[in-house]
Amino acid sequence: MQISKGGFGTIAPVQWSSPTQSLPMLRLFGLQVANASREAALDWLSTRIERGERTRVAFLNAHCVNVAARDANYRKALTTTDALLPDGSGIALATRMQRSRLVANLNGTDLVPALCERLARSGHSVFLFGGEVGVAADAGRALQAQYPGLKIAGTQHGFFNKTDEQLVINKINASGASLLLVAMGVPRQDAWLAQHADELSPTMTMGVGALLDFMAGRVSRAPLALRKIGQEWIWRLAQEPKRMFKRYVLGNPAFIARAVVDALPIDEDHIASFDAAAKRGFDLAITSCALLLLSPLLLLVAALVKATSPGAVLHEQIMIGQDGVPFGMLTFRVTEGSADNSHFTLIGELLCKTGLEELPQLWNVLRGDMSLIGPRPQLPSEVARYLPQQYRQLAAKPGLTNL
Description:
This protein is α/β, with parallel strands linked by helices and 403 residues long. The chain has helices at 38-51, 62-68, 72-79, 89-97, 108-122, 135-146, 165-175, 188-195, 211-215, 224-228, 232-239, 241-263, 271-308, 348-354, 361-366, 380-383, and strands at 25-28, 31-34, 55-60, 83-86, 125-130, 151-156, 179-183, 204-207, 314-320, 326-332, 335-337, 342-344. It is elongated.
């Protein structure tokens, strides 16, 4: 895999083409990416529509970065958008590597429905384009049910012949829609919008990926807990492992490598934060995959613990983490009885001998208490007996391995 500095070479910054107040920006992978709160982004988008200011919007996530690094046509489509919005934990990680901070995750799955809610109040209409036959129509009905008063100007599936392309464009223009949502996947949707920008009459056009499938109920979103920690991709991989394997299992490490290169060159002051961000990215990529692959085993062990002894499945032990901060380290429960008179459960000794009781610590890694590689965490009573020189060990995040 060849990786160039910034991933895209030299690119001129995006210039906002209207008097509408511009969004704050940050530069990532040679691109100008909006860095604003959710409300600020919604204000900017809805104001552009209200004023009739022609606007093309795209979203940038880890997969987009990987595709743009090898697809010049798609890369050009991204560099010529009026707004490039950050999508996902990968972009947040790349931002931290630059010693900056992403204000908000402006992914289309959450942002576009909120924009539709505003359009329902203002009377503007939406055209839905993409997906299999029936998906756009079902998504339109779902949006109208969620936001009464929203006008769906028209729908069109994404499977059409090249000879029918002009008919599709004519249908979109005749609808009078203010907002065109195109769901044909990366890179096709954004390249198509860039190619036909001068032919399309909707005020705002936007590539929205799998949004219509989500809205139509064809694909389910990840549980809120996974979304909150930025690991929705695990859910997508579990749903469609064959199609998503290359995008996530191979793509995530490739993206992290590109983010590392994009953060270079670094000086002495940047090394610590740069290394920490890269290590955290490695932990997230490997641990997420491990939890997914080991989930059948985790469920089996949990069921055996529950079936063979009363009490909770997991045990939380207070340990001392990085910089002396305590945290709750998770293990499968292997004992029962009182603190003064405890003994192994029926399978507790086996779990200890095989090391399976420590598998829940992968969740500690995922939430940032621990790392895959590092010194084992210590009990508070052990740290209390440390000699001065031993406190250096607390400078590192505790890990699953050992020194």
